[in-house]
Amino acid sequence: MNRKHWIVWCVFGLFILACKKDNPIKEEIEKFLGFQKPANFPEPVYKLANNPVTKEGFELGRALFYEPRLSRNNTISCGSCHIQSSAFTQHGHDVSHGIDDRLGKRNSPPIMNLAWNKAFMWGGGIFDLDLQPITPITTHEEMDENLENVLNKIRALPKYTALFKDAFGTEEVTTACFMKALSQFMVMCVSSNSKYDKVMRKEADATFTADEQAGYVLFTEKCASCHSEPLFTDGSFRNNGLGISAINDKGLYGATLIETDRYKFKVPSLRNLQYTAPYMHDGRFLSLAGVLEHYNSEVQTTPNLDPLLNQNGKLGIALNENQKAKLTAFLNTLNDTDFVNNKILSEQ
């Protein structure tokens, strides 16, 4: 073999090797097993029988999740405000930034373990995951588009007619299939592989440290009434004594118009706090230390304050510095690095 041929074969070999390395997502997708309930989780709320997760449906849903054509000017995707490395929240902002850099009024909630959610959004009003995407698509501060325009843009792309055919047996891009595909992606955003989960499942001899165990005991005594295991939220809407914001966001009341729902917001999961700062519905706390101090000394007597935060005239949850440190140690066991690095959930 002469030198020229040797160089050609070397270049060809490097090209083949690069192609193999450049598509790790495809390699992971080939192992796709569909929705798998973690052993330490309850049965999901989402009706998977009505929309079973398939490899093709999931791939379509992932493409749509990262598709900027869902917005009016084709610049904002779901993934713009729900970034995987931040456990599908939007880092760096107290409230979300949408189309034309418009400010929303709430912090982007994480897309995580939604298959176990009974209601969606910080202020409620949506009870079916298949309907949830309509809100960000049509909201002025988010995507500022209408659904028919979105579907028409999708219909014009051969890439999507092929993906719809693979997922649902027809090239027709319907509202129902569009929503179901997005749901198939979102229900696969399962965070269940933190240290806490491994301890609960008795995997690989995982155990809590002394401080983590002490923090766990504190958590069960002081926090678990609202942040129940293993999802670390009970899915309810509560008023946790935050001061009323400048925009006077009334929370659940905006969806129900029931007076006793004023200033109630959805109880968030405590999973992946390492990645999801800032905290609360309006991102007012930049650190976990700020959150703990709120419950220790800053709870305010706002209308409809949750009774758990006003026991015998004492506001909040008493926490000394030692207890805060141990509670923080336990909360750090809820961080799931596998989830934020899961290749099949990432943008291609």
Write the layout of secondary structure elements.
Blueprint: H1 3-21, H2 24-29, H3 55-65, H4 78-81, H5 134-138, H6 147-155, H7 158-168, H8 175-187, H9 195-200, H10 210-222, E1 237-238, H11 253-256, E2 265-266, H12 288-298, E3 310-311, E4 314-315, H13 321-331, H14 337-340
Helix pairs in contact: 3-7, 3-8, 10-13
Task: Please provide a brief summary of the model.
This protein is an all-alpha fold and 348 residues long.
Structural overview:
Mean pLDDT is 93; it is low at 6-12 and 14-20. The protein starts with a helix and ends in an 8-residue tail after the last helix. β3 (310-311) and β4 (314-315) form a beta hairpin. Helix content is 36%, strand content 2%. The protein has 348 residues and is mainly alpha-helical. The protein has a two-stranded antiparallel ribbon with strand order 1-2. A two-stranded antiparallel ribbon has the order 3-4. The radius of gyration is 23 Å and the shape is globular. It folds into 3 domains: 1-28; 29-191 and 341-345, Cytochrome Bc1 Complex, Chain D, domain 2; 195-338, Cytochrome c-like domain (Cytochrome Bc1 Complex, Chain D, domain 2), CATH 1.10.760. It is built from 14 helices and 4 strands. One of its GO terms (cellular component) is periplasmic space. InterPro entries: Cyt_c-like_dom, Cyt_c-like_dom_sf, Cytochrome_c_Peroxidase/MauG, Di-haem_cyt_c_peroxidsae, MauG/Cytc_peroxidase. Residues 56-158, 210-335 form the Cytochrome c domain. One of its GO terms (molecular function) is cytochrome-c peroxidase activity. It holds the Pfam family CCP_MauG.
